[in-house]
Structure formats: C-alpha cells, structure tokens
Amino acid sequence: MQTDSVHLILDLWMSENWSDSWVKKIEEIIDREFSVVKKIRHDFEPHGETVAYILSESHFTLHSYPEENYISLDIYICKPNYSFVNLVSEIEEFLPISKINNRTMKRGEYALPLLTRWKNAELVLLVTTFIVAACSLLYELLLAQNLSTVLGDSAHRYNVTIGLYIASMGLGALLYNKFNFQDKIKSLFKVEILLIVFGGLSPIAAIILDSILRDHYILLSVFLHLLIIIIGVLSGFELPLLMDIGKKKRERLATIVLGVDYVGTLFAAILFPLLLVPLFSIFGIAAIVAGLNSLVAISFIRLISFKNNKEKTLYYLVSAMCIFFAWYGITNEEKISEYLISRYFLGAR
Amino acid sequence: MKKNYLLLTCILSFCSISYELLFANTLAIMSGNVVLWHSLTIGIYIAGLGLGTFRSVDIIMPKKKLVRVELLLCLIGAISVASIYFITAIYETALSIAKAGYIADYSSYITLKTQLRALYFIICESLVFAVGYLSGFELPLIMAMASTDLNQETMDESNENQFIAFNYFGTLIGTLIFAYLLIPIIDALYTSLVVASINLLACLWLVLSFKAQTEKRIKVSLLIFSVLLGFSFFYAKSFEQIFLRVYYRAGTTFIDDDRHDFKTWWKKTMDKGDVVRIKTLYQYIDFFNVSWKGKDEFILMINTNFQFSSLNERYYHEGFVHIPVLITGKEPVDVLVLGAGDGLLLRELKKYESIKSLTHVELDPEMHELSKSNDVISSLNEGALSDPNIKTIIGDAFQFLRKSTKKYDAIFIDFPYPQDYNVSKLFSYEFYTFVRRNLTPNGYAVFDVPLRTKEGSTASESRRLIELHSTFTDSDFERNSIVMSTVSKAGFKIRIPYLVGKETFLLITNTNEQLNYDLLGKLSDRYPNLDNDALSLINRQYFPHVIEDQYVNSVFHPLLVD
Questions:
Q1: Would you identify the CATH topology of the domain A5-111?
Q2: Is domain B311-551 in CATH 3.40.50.150, yes or no?
Q3: B43 and A266: CB-CB below 8 Å?
Q4: Is the CB of B47 less than 8 angstroms away from the CB of A262?
Q5: Tens digit of pLDDT for each residue in A204-231?
Q6: What is the value of pTM for the model shown?
Q7: Which CATH number fits domain B2-241: 3.40.1350, 1.20.1250, 1.10.10, 2.60.40?
Q8: Does this complex have an ipTM over 0.90?
Q9: What is the DSSP string of B399-468?
Q10: Which residues of B touch A167 (CB under 8 A)?
C-alpha cells in the first residue's frame, strides 16, 4: 500500500461580518470534489463549529471561530500528485477572504529524505541521467565552440547556439509524444548511438564542411546550424525517455530524475571551460563526450529484453565499436587533429 | 483566453533567456574569456531553473506567486548589467590600490586577486542563479493558472505540450533578437532596461487582465517600480559615466596622490572630462584623459583592455616598426599591416620612402573612422589613415590572409592581447602559417605578444600604469614556450623576441640574409624616442622557453589566453 500523501493546511480570515453560509460553501465544495464516507459535526455554544469528514481519499476537518472571523481547515489526500490549486482558487472565489495562509506538507514515504530511499537499480538510472544530462550540455558547448572556430565571433555564436539548442530540445520533447516509442529502453539506446555519431563527429564534419564550402558562407552556416538542431532534437528525446523509464518503477522517481538532470547540466558547465577546453583540442573533447555517452549506452543493454540472441549481439557490437572509436580518438587526439588541420583547414599549397 | 496564456509564456521565457544572455555577455566583456563565462552562466542558470521548477510543485495560489516572481525578476533584470558594472568598478579599484604598494610582495597580491575574483564570481553568479530559480517557477505556474481558468477545455497532455513549445519558442526568439538586434544595436545597459520593461508590462498585464487578486503592497511596489524604471532610462547614461570614470580613473588617481584623502580622490576621479564609450558591432571603445604625475594622458581601451597611452605610445610604436628594419637591414617595399586601427603604426611606417605598396586590414570600420576623425587620435597618428596611398581593407585579418595569394616582404601585426579565444585565434599556428605563405622568401613579420624576460618585467600587469615587480614564474615560462612553439610549428626558423620599455615583440622570418643584432649607436631622426639604452638591450634580453608540440596554440585547441 502506497503511503505517499499530501496534506493541505489552510487558515482563512474573512473581511466581512460572519456568515454561516461560508462553512456551508466549503462543505459543498468538499462534497463535490471528493467522495465522502462519513460526516461528524459538533456545534459549540454560543457559536463555532467543528466538522470532520472521513473521505475515501483520507480526511477533511474544519474549525470555525465566528468571533474572530476565522476558519481553519485541513485536507489530507492519499495521492502524491494531487494538486490543491483548483480547490483553493474556488474557495478564494466564493469567500470574502482578507488574509490567507496555506501550507502543503508531504506525508508518508513521500516525506522521507530522498537519499534514504534510493535503491540499487534506481541508482543506475540516476547515474545514467546525470551523465546523459552532462553530455547533453557538453554537446551544446562543443557545438558553440565548433561554430566559433569555423565562423569566428565566439560571443555571438554562443548566444545563437544556446537558443537554437534549447528550442531544438523543446522540439524533441514535443516530437517524443508524436513518435510514441514502444520500447523505451531500446529507444534510449538508439538515441544515444545517434548522438555519439553526430556529436562525436561534429567537429570533424565542421572542419571538412569548412574546407568545401569556404566561399559559400550562408550554405556553410546553414549546415552547421542544422547540426545543432539535429543534436538538440536527439537530446530532447532523452529526458522524457528517462522520466518514463523512471515512472514505470516508481511515480516519484521521475521527479528525482528531473532534479539529477539539472545537477548533471551544472557539472558539465563547470567541467567544460575549466578542464576540457584547456586540456584538449575540440576533436579530443568530442571523443571524450562520445566515449562517456558510449559507456551509458552499453550499461543500458542489460536492461533491454531482446527478441533473440542475434539482436543482442548486434547491440553489444555497436556499442563496443562506439567505445573503440572514442578510445582511439582520445588516445590519438594529436595525430588526428594534426592531420585534419593540415589536410582541411590549412590546405596544401 | 488560452492564446493569452501562450503569449504570456512566450514573453516571459523571452525575458528570462535575455537576462541570462545579458549576464553572460557582460561578464565576458568585463573579465575576458567568452567560453568560461558563457558556459558557467548557462549551467548555473539551468540549475536554477531546475530548482525553481522543483519548488513550484506545491504552490496552490499560482497567480499571486507569479506576480511576485515577475516583480522580483524585473527588479533583478533591470539592475543586472548595472550591478555587474558596480561590482567590477569596486573590484578593479581595490586591485589597483593593492598593486600600488599596499601589498608588499607579488605572491600575496596574487592571493588577494584570487580571493577577490572568487568573491566577484560568487556575487555575480548568485544573481544568475536567482534569475534561473525565479524563471523556473514561470512555466509550472502559468500551466497551473491555465488549468483553473480554462475549465471548459481541461488541460490534457497535448495542451501541456503547447505551453512547453511556446516556452521554447520564446527562448529561441529571445536569443535571436538578443544576438542579432539588441546587442549589436543598443548596448548592454539599455538592453537590460528594455527587457525589464517588457517584463514589467507582462507583469502589469498579468495583474490587470488575468484577474490576479493582488495585495495592495504588491500593487504599490509595481507602481513605484514602473516609475523608477521609467526614470532609469534617463539616468542610465550618467550612471554609466560614473561607472566608467571610477573604473578607469579611481585606481590611478589614488596612487597619483599620496595623501589619499577621499574627497580629493573622488574629485580627481570625476574631473578630467567624460570617459567616451563607443559601442561598435565588434567591441566597446573607451577613451579618456587622466592626470598622471602632473601630466595629462590620453588613454584608449578596447573591451576594457589597454590599447595605448599618449604618453608612451611613440616609444612603443618606434620599437615595433624600426627595430625589425634595423635587425634585418632591409627597408620594406610591399607592406601589409593587420589590425592597428589607431593608425599609430602606420605613422611610423610612412617614414620609409622605400614603401611602394601599403595594405591595411582592420576589422572594425567604426574604429577606423574614429581614428580618422577624432582630434586627439588623428593628431597622434598624424592623419596617417587619410593617406590615399594606403589601401585599406575592412575585414577579418584571419580570413584575409587565408584567401590572399599576394606576397609581402614585411607584415606588421598589431592585435589586442589574447584576452579570449577570439583573439587567441589570431595567435594560432594556423594563422602564422597563413602569414608565412604571404611572405616573400626573405620577408619578415613582427607582432606584439605577451612574453616575459628572465628579469621578470610584468608585461600584462604594467599595462594599467602601475608596476609591480615579480619574479619569473612557471606560468611565464609556459607562456613564452606557447608563443615560441606556435610560430616554430608554423615554419618560422628565426625567432627574435625583444623588449622595448614594457612591451614585448616577436620578429619572425626565414631569411637567408645576414641579421644584425648589435644596434648600439644606430640612432636616427626617424625614431627620436629610442635611445641607446633601448637599442643596446635587444641582444642581451633572455626569454626562457622550450619548443615543444604540447605548447602549440591552435584554433582548435586554444592555449594562449591571458
């Protein structure tokens, strides 16, 4: 039995003289919104009342203090995602409230600190989310750096890339619902592989495109911005996929996934300028990010249910290849960048 | 009704991303390094967004909360650029005072500088975090509002997606308008006020037409804030002027007067006329007068980095142009000048009648126009830029050299010091490779570059007039090695670094002809400011370095950033 609940505590002070219709109105709203099992009421002398409802959702209590123009109420609901917004706005609309004080509390397992409730399998999901989120921002920064190396004017490129990237991620999140992915874990794997290919090769693509389209500035910049959109849309798929995978395990896990996603983003934002850019060339950074992404992909294979062994082998093979190429890229960074620069950027003369 | 909500979503996300970009761009200009500030700012902003979204789940009175959030956001947005200016002015002044000898040795100066920088970073980025945090509330709150108001068409998943889409749409519009319209046309300070005004209008719209039951004190603060924001448009220029005067003059005037009396200090900082700021498509150009040891000095800065001072530029430019001619023993014929938008280098070159063609490539047309039309600068460069014999090309030096096939026998390169990756590109081995390809076999190129001699004259620190002696450190060795390895990688076999006054230059060539380093006694009317001391030093300076591949500065792996 799930213990996750929310508890609303509301203090209401009225601006007009006391009217008994107010408590009635609140009771009407409660009657309509929830399924009442049993009502208990006690009237005090000379005035004031206490009302208690047992709801199938939990309970509701109300105390009125007519001499103080004050009503106090409690609603306890056994649904972790229940929102009191509609209820409160209705109460606000019908009563002449002068002052309102509200608190919502989490109850049950929902109220425990997050750390005490992490389970092993969930930890894998969260670590994955962290790396995926970090990679996602790293791709974005890599693309901005890419654009500014080829087209110059880095401040301008960073401004444009950030907007385009966030918008493309939004587009990805929207398309996600249209596509209706059946096997979420499999889909995540495929998305990661595509990201590794496009993201890892993006600086190489940029330098080659630049050598071909050097005199066609508009065409070159269209291609380079297209690359941002592709990687942005692919990254946009990741978070909804991860949240759906999390939701399947436990409703509340989706929120934690979201939180971890933001922490991963912050981590990448610090890592990129302070460590990656000073230590590696743009090709090296791309290989490192692709490598991190490959590790995530391979760790996911265990969770996929395959139709046959052939398919399973294929998945392992693809991710092993990704890791190999990323490793090759990282260890031979200097050779590769030297070759690319002299062949494509400087051009033989 | 729903349309209104979508429009509101779009406008608010536009404002939020604009604030983020304002912070990132202003910080990058004030303290150099585009990549660092852009990456950190977007990361901290997104982290703030996440926490804000997280915390917005339990809110049950969305309209009230949203009005408050927007009010706060307007406030932070309106002061975003101004507060960075303010903090930077304090930071710079404190450092100048520390440099003036209140700190005994170099290492404790560096410690102080690091601590101040950390503080600077924390203050600025907490503002960014606050903007992100508050913006995180926006989308969930608007969606909660819409779900109560639009009862007839209940919020299903596709409706929710529409809101998310409009949020992203606003972000995209924000960045595009910001990058292509706001920043190139109006400067950062006014941009922050314009965006805050849009945000305030959205907030007022929210109060008036979305039936948000707002408390009196919120309404009053909205009113007060609207009035203040209106006024701030008129006072922005004077605020900027005070900031610029403090930023550029406070440190110098403090040291110039031994009494350190606050009143005279402030008066001297505010006197001496305006600090003129010109915003061009590429940079901020600031110039002003300052009094130094009883003399009036004219100083020009680009993106707050030192360019030249009227007191010592002659010495510097004479060393730049004439010493390479003396060493190679060849008066130039076909000359290419890259950068040097102030025209001072051209003034020195015009002293050679041997020159048959002189091509000048400058990125910023407004810099070029200013050096032609401004009285002080054009009298300093003796109208060199108006000379019809000079072929001026307005464009990017990197792209120009990459495409050019003409051969020159001398190339003079005068760029700002590599404060960020954009300029670092002009100190890369790819760039020097293009330089080599555009030189005749016996031709040479010379450029000013941050190098350090063993004696440890602090080239970059001394650029703000105040000298602080330091010992030669590991990072100096590394920097020398980067510069020398980079030109070596580009195929220059002869590399002659030299120091004139406080400025260091590097002469590079592959010539087969005899070079002459002994310049003692080679005085001339062409360079009246260079004395025997300066000339005789050339072959006695020692710049420790190694030539190694790991030190090569490349476009694709920038190493040389101050």
A1: S-adenosylmethionine decarboxylase (3.60.90)
A2: yes
A3: yes
A4: yes
A5: 999 999 888 888 888 998 999 999 999 9
A6: 0.79
A7: 1.20.1250
A8: no
A9: HHHHH----EEEEEEE-----SHHHHGGGSHHHHHHHHHTEEEEEEEEEE-----TT---TTGGGGS---
A10: 168-169, 171-172
